[in-house]
C-alpha cells in the first residue's frame, strides 16, 4: 500500500470520550441514588407502619384490661376519664383515646363532655391486614387519615362488655418518613458528588494514552506499517499499543503473502492451460476400435494424465498415469512425462521397455519420494491384441461381450521413480490380452475406485466399476464415461472430490452384418438407441425383482406421464412393469449383479419406451392373445404379461443392438381414451 494514497479527511468527534464517560457515570450514580433512596424510604415506611400498629395494639390492650375492672363499678367513667385524659396528654400524637360499652355509650374519654354520649367513631375506617398477631375481638383499622386499634373489654367470665379504641393520625408517620428522607438525601448527594469527582480524575488519567494510539492508527491508515507505537503504560492501553504493533507487522506480512498468492495463482492458471493442452480433446477411432477418456481434477491442476496416439507402424498406443503430487508439482511432472512419452513411444515396441526408460529419465529430475504410477498399452487394431505393462497402476478391467463377464488384470510392477537404479526392470513384464468384437476395456486412476461414500467408511471399489461397465457395454464410450461419472457422483452424494479422477475406455465394435435385412434392422434399432440416448430420460435397474418397484415413482416424475387422465398412468405402469419383469425373470434369471436401462422418449412421432439389456434372448414376438373366456386361462394367473403389454401399447417391437444387446420398444398413443382402454 502506498503511503501517498490520498486518505479521507478525519473529522473531529462530535462527542468526546471524557464527556461520554462523565455522562454515563452521572446517569448511573444518579439512578443508583434514586433507586436506593426509593427502596430505603419504602422499607422505612413499612417498618414505621409495623411499629405504629404494634404500639396502638399494645395501648388498646392495656386500656381494655384497665377498663374491665372499671366496668365492674357503678360509675366506670369516674375511673376511665382520668386514665384516658392522662394517656392522651402524655402522648399528644394520639388522635383518639376512648372506651365504649357494649351499648355504644362512651364511658371513657379525655373530653368529659363525650362521656355518657353515643360514641361517634371517625368515618371511612376499614379493617386492614397486618403482620401483627391479633387476639379474639381485636381489629386493626385504617382510613386515609388515621390508624386505629380496637381491643375488647372482657368480663372475667369471657363476656364482652365494651371496646377500647386508640387512633393515631397518618401525618405522624409521614413526618417520620420525611425526616428520614432528608437525612438519606444529604448522604446520597455526598456520594454522588464524590463519584463525579473520582470519575473526572480517573477519566483524565485514563485518556492520556489515547492521543498516542490515535496518531499511530492514523499512520497505519495512511499505509505506514513500519513505524511502531511507543507507549509506556501499564494498563490495557499499553497492551493495545503492543497489539497494534503486532497487527501492523502481520498486515505487512499479509500484503506480502497476497502478492505471492497472486503470483502463484498466475502460475497455476498457466499450468492449467498447459495441462489442458496436453490432454486429448477428442476420441480416437480406427478399424472398429474407439478410445476415449475423461479427466476431472481435485484441484485447479491435477496429477492425473492420459493419452492415446497412433504409432508409426499403425498400432495404437494409450496410457493412463497418476503422479504422486497435486497442483503445480503434479502438473510439471506430468508435463515431463508427456514429453518423454512423445520422444520414445516410436522407439520401443515393448511397453515394458518404454516404462523402464521413463523410470530412468524421470529419476534424474524427480525429488526422492516422488513417483508416478503408469499403465501403457500398445493395441494392434487388426488382430485386437493388446500388449501392456503397468508400473504400480490400477488393475485393468475388461468386459467380454460374448459371455457378459468381467475380467481383472493385475500386475506386480513398482511405480516409476519409486526406487532408483533400474530396480523397476525386475518387476515389470509385458502381458497380452485380445479384445474381441463387443469387448470393452476400462483403465483408470485410484481416484475412482478409492472414492469414499459420505460416511468415509466404504470405497466405490472395483466391483461397482465392473457393474457399471457391464450395464453400459452396449453404449458408446462417451456414454460409458458419463454414466460412470454419474454413478460416482451419486456414490459421493455431494462430498468433496479428494483425488483426481481419470477414466479411459477402449471399445471394439461388433463386425457389421452383410445380410441386407439384418442391416436394415440394425439401422432401425440404432436409430431407436441413438434417439433415446440423445433426448430420452432413463433409469438403470438391476436384475432383481425388488428393483421393479422403482418404475412407478420414476414414471410419476416425468411431467408428461404424470398428467395423463383417468387410468392412463396405472395402465402404462403395469405394461412397463411386465416388460421389465420378463427381462429380470427370463433374460437375467433374477441375477442382481446384472442391470438394464429403461428410457422414456418423447420424440416427434408417438412417444415410446425403450429397454436395453444384455440378458439371454427369449421368444416374445410369437405372442398370441390369450382367451380370457377360457376358465383355465383365468385360473392360471400367470403368463399374461404380454397380453397386458399388447393391450396397453399400440405397437411392441423387438430388435438387437450392434453388440447383440436386446432392445424392446413399447409405443403408445397418448391421445386415446384411457378409461375405455381400462374398461376393455
TrEMBL record:
Signal peptide: none annotated. CDD domains: HAMP (cd06225), HATPase_RsbW-like (cd16936). It holds the Pfam family sCache_3_2. Its main location: membrane. Gene3D superfamilies: 6.10.340.10, Histidine kinase-like ATPase, C-terminal domain, PPM-type phosphatase domain. It comes from the Bacteria. It is a multi-pass membrane protein. The keyword Zinc does not apply. It is found in: Cell membrane. The chain crosses the membrane at residues 20-39, 184-207. Keywords: Cell membrane, Coiled coil, Hydrolase, Kinase, Membrane, Phosphoprotein, Transferase, Transmembrane, Transmembrane helix. SUPFAM superfamilies: ATPase domain of HSP90 chaperone/DNA topoisomerase II/histidine kinase, HAMP domain-like, PP2C-like, Sensory domain-like. InterPro entries: Bact_Sigma-Reg, HAMP_dom, HATPase_C_sf, HATPase_dom, PPM-type-like_dom_sf, PPM-type_phosphatase-like_dom, sCache_3, Sensor-like_sf. Residues 244-271 form a coiled coil. GO terms for biological process: signal transduction. One of its GO terms (molecular function) is kinase activity. Residues 204-256 form the HAMP domain. GO terms for cellular component: plasma membrane. PROSITE patterns: HAMP. PANTHER family: STAGE II SPORULATION PROTEIN E, STAGE II SPORULATION PROTEIN E-RELATED. This is SpoIIE family protein phosphatase. The lineage of its organism: Bacteria, Candidatus Eiseniibacteriota.
Amino acid at each position: 500500500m502506498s503511503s501517498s494514497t490520498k486518505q479521507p479527511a478525519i473529522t473531529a468527534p462530535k462527542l468526546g470520550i471524557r464527556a461520554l464517560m462523565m455522562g454515563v457515570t452521572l446517569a448511573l450514580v444518579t439512578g443508583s441514588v434514586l433507586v436506593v433512596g426509593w427502596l430505603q424510604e419504602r422499607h422505612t415506611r413499612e417498618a414505621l407502619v409495623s411499629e405504629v400498629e404494634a404500639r396502638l395494639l399494645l395501648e388498646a390492650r392495656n386500656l381494655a384490661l384497665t377498663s374491665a375492672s372499671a366496668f365492674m363499678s357503678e360509675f366506670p367513667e369516674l375511673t376511665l376519664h382520668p386514665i384516658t385524659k392522662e394517656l392522651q396528654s402524655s402522648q399528644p400524637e394520639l388522635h383518639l383515646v376512648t372506651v365504649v360499652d357494649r351499648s355504644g355509650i362512651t364511658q371513657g374519654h379525655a373530653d368529659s363532655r363525650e362521656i355518657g354520649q353515643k360514641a361517634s367513631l371517625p368515618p371511612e375506617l376499614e379493617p386492614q391486614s397486618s403482620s401483627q398477631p391479633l387476639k379474639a375481638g381485636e381489629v386493626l383499622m385504617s382510613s386515609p387519615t388515621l390508624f386505629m386499634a380496637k381491643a375488647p373489654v372482657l368480663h372475667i367470665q369471657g363476656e364482652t362488655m365494651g371496646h377500647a379504641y386508640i387512633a393515631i393520625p397518618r401525618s405522624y408517620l409521614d413526618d417520620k418518613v420525611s425526616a428520614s428522607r432528608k437525612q438519606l438525601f444529604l448522604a446520597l448527594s455526598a456520594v454522588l458528588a464524590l463519584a463525579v469527582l473520582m470519575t473526572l480524575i480517573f477519566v483524565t488519567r485514563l485518556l492520556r494514552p489515547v492521543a498516542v494510539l490515535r496518531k499511530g492508527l492514523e499512520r497505519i491508515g495512511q499505509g505506514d506499517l513500519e513505524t511502531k507505537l511507543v507507549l509506556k503504560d501499564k494498563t490495557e492501553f499499553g497492551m493495545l499499543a503492543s497489539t497494534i504493533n503486532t497487527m501492523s507487522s502481520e498486515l505487512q506480512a499479509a500484503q506480502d503473502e497476497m502478492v505471492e498468492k497472486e503470483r502463484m495463482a498466475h502460475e497455476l492458471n498457466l499450468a492449467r492451460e498447459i495441462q489442458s493442452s496436453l490432454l486429448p480433446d477428442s476420441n480416437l477411432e480406427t478399424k472398429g476400435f474407439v478410445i476415449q477418456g475423461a479427466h476431472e481434477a481435485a484441484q485447479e491442476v491435477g496429477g492425473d494424465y492420459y493419452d492415446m496416439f497412433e504409432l508409426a507402424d499403425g498400432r495404437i498406443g494409450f496410457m493412463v498415469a497418476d503422479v504422486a503430487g497435486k497442483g503445480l508439482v503434479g502438473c510439471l511432472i506430468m508435463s515431463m512425462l508427456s514429453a518423454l512419452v512423445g520422444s520414445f513411444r516410436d522407439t520401443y515396441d515393448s511397453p515394458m521397455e518404454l516404462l523402464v526408460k521413463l523410470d530412468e529419465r524421470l529419476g534424474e529430475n524427480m525429488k526422492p519420494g516422488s513417483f508416478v504410477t503408469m499403465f501403457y498399452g500398445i493395441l494392434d487394431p487388426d488382430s485386437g491384441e493388446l500388449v501392456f505393462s503397468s508400473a504400480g497402476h490400477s488393475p485393468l478391467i475388461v468386459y467380454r461381450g460374448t459371455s457378459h463377464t468381467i475380467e481383472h488384470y493385475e500386475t506386480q510392477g513398482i511405480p516409476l521413480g519409486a526406487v532408483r537404479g533400474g530396480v523397476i526392470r525386475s518387476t515389470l513384464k509385458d502381458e497380452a490380452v485380445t479384445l474381441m468384437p463387443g469387448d470393452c476395456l476400462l483403465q483408470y486412476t485410484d481416484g475412482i475406485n478409492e472414492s469414499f461414500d459420505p460416511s468415509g467408511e466404504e470405497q466405490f471399489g472395483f466391483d461397482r466399476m465392473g457393474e457399471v461397465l457391464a450395464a453400459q457395454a452396449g453404449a458408446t464410450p462417451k456414454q460409458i464415461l458419463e454414466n460412470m461419472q454419474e454413478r460416482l457422483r451419486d456414490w459421493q452424494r455431494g462430498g468433496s472430490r479428494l483425488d483426481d479422477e481419470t477414466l479411459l475406455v477402449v471399445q471394439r465394435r461388433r463386425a457389421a452384418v452383410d445380410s441386407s435385412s439384418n442391416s436394415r434392422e440394425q439401422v432401425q434399432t440404432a436409430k431407436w438407441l441413438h434417439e433415446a440416448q440423445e433426448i430420452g430420460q432413463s433409469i438403470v435397474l438391476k436384475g432383481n425383482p425388488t428393483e421393479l418397484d422403482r418404475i412407478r415413482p420414476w414414471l410419476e416424475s416425468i411431467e408428461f406421464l404424470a398428467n395423463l387422465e383417468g387410468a392412463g398412468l396405472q395402465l402404462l405402469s403395469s405394461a412397463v412393469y411386465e416388460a421389465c419383469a420378463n427381462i429380470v425373470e427370463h433374460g437375467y434369471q433374477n441375477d442382481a449383479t446384472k442391470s438394464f436401462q429403461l428410457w422414456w422418449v418423447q420424440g416427434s412421432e408417438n412417444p415410446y419406451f425403450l429397454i436395453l439389456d444384455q440378458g439371454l434372448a427369449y421368444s416374445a414376438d410369437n405372442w398370441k392373445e390369450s382367451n380370457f373366456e377360457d376358465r383355465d386361462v383365468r385360473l392360471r394367473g400367470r403368463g399374461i404379461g404380454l397380453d397386458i403389454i399388447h393391450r396397453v401399447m399400440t405397437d411392441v417391437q423387438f430388435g438387437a443392438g450392434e453388440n447383440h444387446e436386446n432392445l424392446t420398444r413399447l409405443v403408445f398413443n397418448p391421445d386415446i381414451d384411457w378409461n375405455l382402454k381400462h374398461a376393455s
